[in-house]
Amino acid sequence: MGLISKGDAKAFELLVARHQHAVYNLALRFLSDSDEAEDVAQDCFIRIYKAAATYTPDAKFTTWLYTIVKNLCFNVLRNRRQAVIVSVDDETLPELPAKSEDPVERITRQQVREKVMHAVSMLPENMRLVVIMSKFHGLSYDEIAGIMGCSVNAIKLRVHRAKAILAEELSDLKDETHGN
Amino acid sequence: MDCKDIQDNLSAFMDQELALAAEESIRVHLGECDQCALQYAKLLKGWQALDAWDDVTPPDRMQRKVLDSVKPQRHALSLRRVLYAAAVLLLVFGTAVYYSGQKERLAQDHLAGSKSPVQTATVGDISEDEIIANLLILQEEDFFEVLDELVKIDELPLAEEPSSPTKEPARSSLDIVLT
């Protein structure tokens, strides 16, 4: 960050390259909209660039980074509500399947994926974000509490409730399709 | 622990967040109670199903857009630095020109005015007379007058005091200067 505040373009480029995947995927899973996720990711890095001079490493960089993403995502949701636009769920295109993958397996996997996405999108916003950060980004409850601005116990409770909801929503999945 | 306690702690059990004793007690219970075991399997299945939601590679254009959008600011930053450097150079150059002019003028005045046979001591290129003449210029400056005025000020008005009906607040010399 020190280098970025001195206008080091290479350092900023490296930072973007290192974190863009996580930032984009967090926004994408939370917002279920690839264009909005892209906008959030871009805005996030621009804000980091602008704030580089005033950045003080009080907490982990990723905590700061995810807090920015969280705030931007909630801004998007707020704008959506104000615009009263029925969003078209244009969730990103699926990853291209590996050539060796069996077509039936691929379709089944795609179906499971859609079901999972739907189940997660049904969770309340705060719960959804906590689940995404915990499950997909491997953040600790401590870190998530710092990002969400609430206690660790509140985070645990949200995860606990989310697991119960997801268990109900996804209970009809075939056994062989879950997990990696 | 009864079934309710067990089920309340299944999430923490999954996360391996419980103390060893509690963890062991749940493990034993799950081996004996079909209902709780079923509930645990359901939770585990739902949570593990999320793994099917793969990461997506961000579009290539995203990074390019980010870097492009901060480029003008980078130019602005370097432009600001150039302006600072130019200002400093201008200041240095202006000062040098001013003093070389002064030096020339003083030399001319000295030659025209004094025909003293006394040889003055020199330090480098600057003569003692020149230094004294410069001191005289300084003395002529308003600086010393302002300084004298400031020395006379006994109190500075820090904040507006509430007006007293009986006593008019004393005016400082700075007030007088300002009015």
Give a structural overview.
The complex is a heterodimer of chains A (180) and B (179). Chain A is an all-alpha fold and 180 residues long. Chain A is built from eight helices and no strands. The radius of gyration of chain A is 18 Å and the shape is globular. In chain B, 69% of the residues lie in helices and 2% in strands. In chain B, strands 1-2 form a two-stranded antiparallel ribbon. The model of chain B has no long low-confidence stretch (mean pLDDT 76). At the A-B interface, helix 2, helix 3, helix 5 and helix 8 of A face helix 2, helix 4 and helix 5 of B.
What's the gist of this structure?
The complex is a heterodimer of chains A (180) and B (179). Chain A has 180 residues and is an all-alpha fold.
Q: Tell me how many strands of chain B there are.
A: 2
Low-confidence stretches of chain B: none
- Averaged pLDDT of chain A, please? 85
Tally of separate helices of chain B: 8
Structural class of chain B: mainly alpha
Order of helices and strands of chain B: HHHHHEEHHH
Largest interface: A-B, 50 and 35 residues
Counting DSSP E segments of at least 2 residues, the number of strands of chain A comes to 0
The run of helices and strands of chain A is HHHHHHHH
| Low-pLDDT segments of chain A | 176-180
The span between the termini of chain B is: 85 Å
Apparent shape of chain B: elongated
Tally of DSSP helical segments of chain A: 8
Q: Considering DSSP H and I runs of 4 or more, what fraction of the residues of chain A is helical?
A: 55-70%
Radius of gyration of chain B: 43 Å
